Amino acid sequence: MDDDSVLNDDSGSLEHQACYIYTPTSEALSLSTPKKRRAASSSRTPRSKREKTDSNNCETIGALGHGFPTLLRDLEGEDAVNARFETFHRLWKDVERRTDDVLAQVNDETLQSVSSFVSKASQDIYGEKLPTGLILTGPNIAAHGVLFEQIESRIQSVDKRGRVAILTSKDSSNLKNVLKKIIRCVTEIHDGFVDEDDIVEAKSGKNPSRYNYDPEIIHDWCSTHPGAKVVVAVQDTEAFDPAVLVELISILHQYLPKIPFILLLGIATSEDIFYEKLPHSTIRLLRGDRFDVQRFEESMEQVFEEAVLSSQSVLKLGPRVADVIFERQKDHTRSVSSFVMALKYAYMSHFYANALSVILGSIDSEESLNTILSDAHCEAIRNLPSFKPFVETKILGFPWRARELLTSNKALKSAVFTASKECQRYSTNLAEAINLFRKLQSIVSPQQANEIPTYELYSRILWGEFTTRPAFRDAMLTTKKISSEKFLTLLTTLSELPSELSEKLSIAADKVQELQSEKAAKGSSLVSEFVLPDSHRTTVKSGRVRLDEQKSKMTSQDTEYQKLVTSTVQDLETYFKNKFKPYTNIFLHEIFFYDLKSPHSQVFAAKPRPSVERALSRPGDYLGCECCGGGNDDDGAGIGGSQPYSAVLYQLYLESPALIGVYDLWSAFRMVCLGDKADQEADDDDEEEKELQAQFYRALAELRYLGFVKYSKKKTDHLVKLAWKGL
Amino acid sequence: MTGPLESLNARFPCRERQIDGLAALLGQDDIPAPPVLVLYGTEATGKSTIVKAVLEEFEIPYAYVSCKECITARHVFEKAYTSCDALISNGEEKGRQIRPDSVNALAGQLQKLIPSSGKIVLVLDAIDKQREVTPTMLSGLARIGEVIRNLTVIMIVTVSSTRLLNISEPPSIYFPAYNKEECVKILSLNPKSIFEVDEEDEYSEEMEQEDRWLWAQCCSAVWDIMGKYAARNLNALKDVVDELWPSLIQPIVDNEYGTRDFPKLFNRLKNEKLRNSEESYVSMQITRAPVDTATDATPLVPNRAHDLPYFSKYLLCAAYLASFNTARYDARYFSKLAEGLSKRKRGRKKKNTSRQLNRKHLGPRPFQLERMMAIFQSILPSSVLSSVDIGSQIATLNSLRLIRKVSNVASATDASSKWRVNVGYEYVKVVGRSVKFDLETHLEE
Ligand SMILES: Nc1ncnc2c1ncn2[C@@H]1O[C@H](COP(=O)(O)OP(=O)(O)OP(=O)(O)O)[C@@H](O)[C@H]1O
Ligand SMILES: [Mg+2]
């Protein structure tokens, strides 16, 4: 992380503060203006709410009103600060729009099939059974609400098939409430639902008024809406009270002859679990279909391609951040929306804390770049880690250029402009090559392509080590071994993708085609030496024999084809090796690749419990005072009388068994706090002793408040240990 | 000569006694009908259908209330009143709606409503299935017929007992469950046909006979293998036969087999569709023909299930272990020290000698969250600092009801709150296997 310290000035750094200690002195209060404090607080709580208000107000807020700090030791110009702010919004808006578009598509297939199920469901198909759609939604709960809203709007507003009532487990307290909710959603009547057994007055004179839970109300509604279906959708079936669900299904089934009910059940875990929870007699009433929602991996892949790989995204994720983000996805969240949040946070912190991010705002015009970059900026650029190797390469060829870069800001600025173009080219090429490689993999070994998604390859590719990985070498090897038909498809597909190889590949494709048709005229197909003998059970020896046999049988077309295969694979390999170079090789990569990992790991995975435990067991870490053994070495930590009382008590607590006698604890506490004096006879009137006792009770109350202990009910004057350290 | 009884018996075979009984009690013009009548019998024994048919056949005016449709007791009263009202006033407009909210109110209102001459029947179907209807209400309802002379209340229930209505010996008719022969006979009334019958083709006598024969064969064969599970009653049996019929006759339509090759046909069907899970087949499937779609789709798209996050899987395994292991032996199973291992071996030997019930059969027991966290940390390949992400995964597992909170402590993730795993061994085993965690070796025997 040391590399980054140049980029992160004190005021904007999110890195250096291990914790925030609040000391309410009057001096501090008077010093910080309200504006500054807001800036500070916004850095610590970048919650989505704040973002929203910020982005809404960004036009109206004037200079520096946006809360971005002045960096570069206050040397940054006001317009540069504003430019950073403005660039952040511009770039993020663009990414957000594109990801939203992708996400809108994600559920499309599911919606399509659900909608056709709903429109087709009729008595002719399902007879007396209640038409039921099981929607396998996957365990990402956050996405379910969106999905069901989409279903609702699709059926209700787009298809105009009828009405949808969405139920969640919160509604499942009893059958009456569920029915009331359905009736309200369907008929859009809102009067008469206040009291238990309220009466709903009929809209038209024809129908009688009814109890507010009477499904006949829906029947009345249906008679005025012929052909409309009534869809009851349960969003979280697992959490829905099973008893109520059984009753609900039986009621819906009872009314089926009168009301065209359709049931949709969202299932997050598995069908088997769902079947286990309902009695057979209930399941027998249902008949229908099953719908699968796109899996997380697939939607994540699409979003990743659009939001990160696409050449329209100027700022890219660096490998370290990518690893942090995707590891968290895999281990903890598995949700696309949380990835989008993380990505936004990356954008935010880059523009917030990195003064040079201003460059990203004017990559298209050298002029504006020249005006926005001040001397302080230039100095900061010269301090970039990538600047040194950049200059060093210049020294060899053009020493005067190197000198100019160091001395003249003008020369530096133009170098920055070219370098930014270079960075963009690198990313475009990278995206192209990744795309090409994925296509190749999906044709050559679809199994592997399915197993490892693109976003997991990404960081290795950026480090430049991907081409040495088995995954890459395997792909290249198997490319040689595939059949000639497959090889032809491979060539044609790859040649259609934009890349510098496309021309070569299409020529090769034509050639293979030609050879193939020549060979087909003779009634056989093209083979190369690499193609394994068909039989799986060949020993090495017989395999070799067969290879020799094959070799002798090879025609001139085959030989030519083989040459072609060899050279094409060679070309591909060089191409990939060329494009998958480490990103750190390029000048200014710090600007175009955001790669600070600790803000993410701190902000997105807060660790309250370990922090509290650490603060109590090693208070020196936080207080930094000498008396508490604040040394860095491990043995420096330990119990000591000078530590805060609750910390002392906590450490004693750690050493005690599950049931703690309060008196034992007190004696130990007294021992630690008084040190040598503790040996003297305890004297109740002693002032010091009294105060210590008070402190003891206070510390104990604190531990209790934090949830570490509670008083035992079984044994008087004993405490029960509730929390163990490190869990 | 076909009197009403003959035609009824033709429509509903195997129910002569019940139909006779109903006709004797209700269909006699000169004898007043009893004030209350109880029909009882298990599911799908023809109670509702036959009583309606008899009433219609004898042209007795009746009001019918299906109590399964009613949500509350008041709802039952309302429906009973309005249906009687509709029967008597024949669609005439009434000024104010009357909504009796107790049995007495219903009796009073009906008394005002019902004219003093002419027989009237009120059928309360499945009145015992209505949860809000209490035994006192039941006996109250039964007495309405005594208050109103010419009204008969027919109650349809599943089981009848002397205490049901608090009346000594109300007249009642039992509808016993059908046996195999009766079921087949009843279902044979409406066989499905083998070949699609177009308008032009004539449905010949011969074809009809073939259909009948095969259908009856199919019904009885299905009863034989599934009578105990999925096809326990007439309706269920009909469902299963309906479901299987298209696949059964497919070979005949394809001209592979003749109509009379029933054993071969059925064997083939059994192998294809039922596999060896007879009990679970039809009753457990909502989706039609899952077998066919599965075979088509698998080679193209590997239909992988939605996955839980990595740590959620371990949390679930930990919750399972915490529920099924005794806390006493935790050190033995989860200690990473060598000592723990050796103890564990010894412990196992000792356990085998004493006879005990397998823990798996006793159901999950509640555990403290802190214990689950300890097991979680110990089964992880490399430890992880607990963060809010772990907490939110526990919350998610809870809303998916894979684990459940059982105690009512205020805060959900309070260390001392009690939890329980809420899914079975098979599911957790699969989840564990996907992260290469072997549940079995950590589970107490
Ligand atoms: N003897 C019979 N002859 C012909 N069909 C019958 C006979 N008995 C029952 N059925 C048919 O079986 C089906 C179920 O009958 P019904 O609904 O009357 O049974 P139930 O006793 O009221 O069941 P539940 O207790 O579930 O209400 C109906 O379709 C009915 O026509
Ligand atoms: Mg019935």
What does it look like?
Chain B: InterPro entries: AAA_16, ORC5, ORC5_C, ORC5_lid, P-loop_NTPase. Chain B: Residues 11-154 form the Orc1-like AAA ATPase domain. The complex is a heterodimer of chains A (727) and B (445). Chain A has three domains: 2-101 and 299-424, no CATH class; 108-293, P-loop containing nucleotide triphosphate hydrolases (Rossmann fold, 3-Layer(aba) Sandwich), CATH 3.40.50; 608-721, Arc Repressor Mutant, subunit A. In chain A, helix 4 packs antiparallel against helix 13, helix 4 (78-106) packs antiparallel against helix 15 and helix 18 (387-397) packs antiparallel against helix 19. Mean pLDDT of chain A is 83; it is low at 1-16, 31-63 and 534-538. In chain A, 58% of the residues lie in helices and 7% in strands. In chain A, a hairpin with a 6-residue loop joins strand 11 and strand 12 (718-721). With 727 residues, chain A is an alpha/beta fold. By secondary structure, chain B is of the alpha/beta class. In chain B, the strands form two sheets. Chain B has a five-stranded parallel β-sheet, sandwiched between helices. The chains are: A alpha/beta (727), B alpha/beta (445). The interface between A and B is large, with 69 and 57 residues. Bound molecules: adenosine-5'-triphosphate and magnesium ion (MG). Residues 47-48, 125-126 of chain B line the site of magnesium ion.
Q: Biggest sheet of chain A, open or closed, and with what strands and sense?
A: 5 strands, parallel
User: How many strands of chain A?
Assistant: 12
Instruction: Kindly report the oligomeric state of this protein.
Output: heterodimer
Strand order of the largest sheet of chain A: 2-5-6-1-7
The whole-angstrom Rg of chain B is 31 Å
Q: What number of structural domains do the residues of chain B give?
A: 3
Order of helices and strands of chain B: HHEHEHHEHEEHHHHHHHHHEHHEEH
Architecture of the largest domain in chain B, according to CATH?
3-Layer(aba) Sandwich
Radius of gyration of chain A from the CA trace? 35 Å
Query: How large is the share of residues in beta strands of chain B?
Result: 5-15%
Strand order of the largest sheet of chain B: 2-3-4-1-5
Pfam family, one (chain A): WHD_ORC
Organism (chain A): Arthrobotrys oligospora (strain ATCC 24927 / CBS 115.81 / DSM 1491)
Subunit structure (chain A): Component of ORC, a complex composed of at least 6 subunits: ORC1, ORC2, ORC3, ORC4, ORC5 and ORC6. ORC is regulated in a cell-cycle dependent manner. It is sequentially assembled at the exit from anaphase of mitosis and disassembled as cells enter S phase.
Subcellular location (chain A): Nucleus
